[in-house]
Every structure is written in structure tokens, then in C-alpha cells.
């Protein structure tokens, strides 16, 4: 089933991209408690949408977080949010079927093109964060330009979800400069999210290589860097999750990992 889903999604990536739209949130007009609509139709109101988490604050942890507790049984799989939404949806579906929750760090211009993906991430029980507006080399930018990269993506997230997102991860770097950490805090992120395991999946080495790299490097508390929009990553996710289960580890959101 996985290979078929990944193949279909990859084939779809060669076609014209879809841009699903959602109607504006009408939660203000819904009655509390999911009872009948006020118009007396007898139909149940739609379930209230999951709330977007505010930026995570983890007292006692550094300004830049690379991993969580090493004495626990959890890890965080984090995904740089960009690429074909069909591949992104396939990957989230694989995670949900396995009972895993992930963290997606979305690029702002991707949210402009695929606004429904913000809600899709949250609806699946995952968490959403900021990965800059245009995915530029943020550590090489002057302060004003770097601030714009962070704040513009935060604005997109706020408009789509009501929150600037749980985390900020700098683009094109594993670790942030002191300037980027300061600017992220200025926008509202107490921590910058780094990682200790790089899957190297953005190079498209194939699913077995992605699986091997992740499972060879991961340990309790690890934060793993992965990417949406790559068919090999979709195919690698189920065996990665199987490997974690065999080691007694579970994939949780980064906030769950560190708080």
C-alpha cells in the first residue's frame, strides 16, 4: 500500500500542482458542544478544529534546542515544510496510521501556495512551526532581512491558524547565529529548534538510505531533520517507525519531547 501511495504521489508531482482551498473558519457561528445548529436543521455541527499551539517555552533548556531528554523513550521527527502537497499528505497519513505525531516547520511561500496544508498538519494531531518565508540562507542575511524572513512566515502562520507556530527553525543551516536567535526571540519564539540527526533525505538517496541514516543515528531524545515533498521519505517513514518501536521508542511532537 505504501509503495503504491508513494508512487502515485510522486507521479502526481509531475503533473500540474493542486492548490486545495478551504473556506474561512466559521467556528464563531458554531454552537458549543456539537449540538444541533441554531437553524433547527437537526444536523450536528462540525467538530471544532484543533487549536494551533503557541510558541513552546521550555524553562531550563537553552535558546537553541538540539535534542530532548536522553533518559526517556521518545524522539521527534521534524519535517521541513515545502514541496508537493500530495507527497506531504501521504507522509502525514503514514505517520497517523502508525500513531506517530510529527513537527512540520513550514516555509512561508509554501503556505502562500498551499494554505490548506497548515490546517491539514494540525488536523492530524501534529504541530506546526516556522522555517522562514523564502528558505534563504538566514545566517548570511543582514539583520533587517533576517527579521523579515522570520516575521513574514510568522504572519502567515498566524493568519492561517491563529498562532505563529510552536517553533522556529532557521533555513539552510543546522545551527543559528546569535543574531538569528535574538531575532527569533524578538518575533516571539523563546527557542530556536535545531536537530542532532540529519536524515540527508533532501538529496533523494532512496528510501533504504534514508531509513538507514535515521536509524543508525537516532537515540532517545533525538530530534531528526527530514523533509516533506520527497517520495523516498514517504517510503522510508513506515520502516523508520517500525525500527523505533522495536527499540521501545515512540515518535512525538517536539513540544511533547521537551516539556
Automatic annotation (TrEMBL):
Residues 38-51 have a biased composition (Low complexity). Pfam families: Polysacc_deac_1. This is Polysaccharide deacetylase family protein. The lineage of its organism: Bacteria, Bacillati, Actinomycetota, Actinomycetes, Kitasatosporales. Residues 19-28 have a biased composition (Basic and acidic residues). PROSITE patterns: NODB, PROKAR_LIPOPROTEIN. It comes from the Bacteria. Residues 11-68 are annotated as: Disordered. Residues 73-252 form the NodB homology domain. It comes from Streptomyces lunalinharesii. InterPro entries: Glyco_hydro/deAcase_b/a-brl (IPR011330), NODB_dom (IPR002509), Polysacc_deacetylase_ArnD (IPR050248).
Amino acid at each position: 500500500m505504501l509503495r503504491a501511495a508513494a508512487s502515485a504521489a510522486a507521479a502526481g508531482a509531475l503533473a500540474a500542482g493542486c492548490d486545495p482551498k478551504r473556506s474561512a473558519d466559521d467556528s464563531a457561528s458554531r454552537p458549543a458542544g456539537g449540538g444541533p445548529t441554531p437553524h433547527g436543521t437537526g444536523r450536528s455541527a462540525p467538530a471544532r478544529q484543533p487549536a494551533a499551539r503557541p510558541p513552546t517555552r521550555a524553562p531550563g533548556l537553552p535558546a537553541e534546542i538540539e535534542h530532548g531528554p536522553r533518559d526517556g523513550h521518545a524522539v521527534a521527527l521534524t519535517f521541513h515544510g515545502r514541496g508537493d502537497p500530495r507527497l506531504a499528505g501521504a507522509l502525514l497519513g503514514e505517520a497517523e496510521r502508525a500513531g506517530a505525531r510529527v513537527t512540520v516547520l513550514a516555509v512561508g511561500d509554501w503556505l502562500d501556495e498551499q494554505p490548506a496544508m497548515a490546517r491539514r498538519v494540525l488536523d492530524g494531531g501534529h504541530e506546526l512551526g516556522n522555517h522562514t518565508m523564502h528558505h534563504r540562507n538566514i545566517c548570511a542575511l543582514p539583520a533587517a532581512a533576517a527579521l523579515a524572513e522570520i516575521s513574514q512566515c510568522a504572519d502567515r502562520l498566524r493568519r492561517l491558524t491563529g498562532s505563529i507556530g510552536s517553533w522556529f527553525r532557521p533555513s539552510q543551516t543546522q545551527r543559528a547565529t546569535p543574531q538569528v536567535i535574538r531575532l527569533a526571540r524578538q518575533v516571539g519564539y523563546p527557542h530556536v529548534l535545531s536537530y542532532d540527526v540529519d536524515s540527508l533525505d533532501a538529496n533523494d538517496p532512496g528510501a533504504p538510505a534514508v531509513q538507514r541514516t535515521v536509524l543508525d543515528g537516532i537515540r532517545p531524545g533525538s530530534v531528526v531533520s527530514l523533509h516533506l515533498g520527497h517520495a523516498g521519505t514517504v517510503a522510508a517513514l513506515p520502516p523508520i517507525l517500525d525500527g523505533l518501536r522495536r527499540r521501545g521508542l515512540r515518535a512525538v511532537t517536539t513540544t511533547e519531547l521537551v516539556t
